[in-house]
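Q: Got a minute? One more chain.
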Amino acid sequence: MYSNLATEEALIECCQAGIFTPTVRLWINQPAAIVGRFQDVDLEVDEEFCIRNSVRIARRFTGGGTVYHDEGNLNLTILSEKRDIRDLQVIGRRNLLVIQETLLQFGVESTVNPPNSVLVSGKKISGASAAVRRNYVLWHASLLVSTSLESIARALYPSREPARTDSVRSRWQPVTNLATLLGRPVAIHEAKKQVIDTIETILGNELRGSKLTSCEEETAKRLHDEEYSTAKWNKKGLTL
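A: Always. Here it is, folded:
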């Protein structure tokens, strides 16, 4: 789980070393509460519930709110190159369209709740965040396929308000998943195949499997050992 998050940052960090290939990454985590880079774990996560139920607590390198991952949650990462500031909006809209078109292929209509959430009948089914480094954009999103909605409700704090905080707070709203909407089980591999088909249609290119580069592997291992697997990173994080 920590390796997955470290790999995300390694992908964009290696771009700055002059190693860039347009990349799509699909990945899954074991049960975990993933807080945004500038969030306070104490205000976002029910740590006692997580400890009792083997839900790990981790911090990603992008901003935004807290999300819950398990084996029913499909994570999508798209690494792109930008030419100017206007490309950020184009990239964001295109990538959210991937989520919407994937859902539509399952017969589910959705709407975008700006800046980065996808809703079905007012309930959130996907959220995204991004990081920009020089001329590169890493955009990643989660799609709730068959994620435990009960675990989301119990692991995360939807209404805990501090007297005062400088940390970024999550924008809580009701959630749903694809299996609930369809009224049938949906396997992750089924959703993954549809995401791939949709991306190939929208981008007009066939996706090809590949391994991490040596730079990505080495950078991911360093980030894992020095940051992502440490209590200092996951508990305290960074200040604004």
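A: The chain has one domain: 2-208.
Q: Perfect, thanks.
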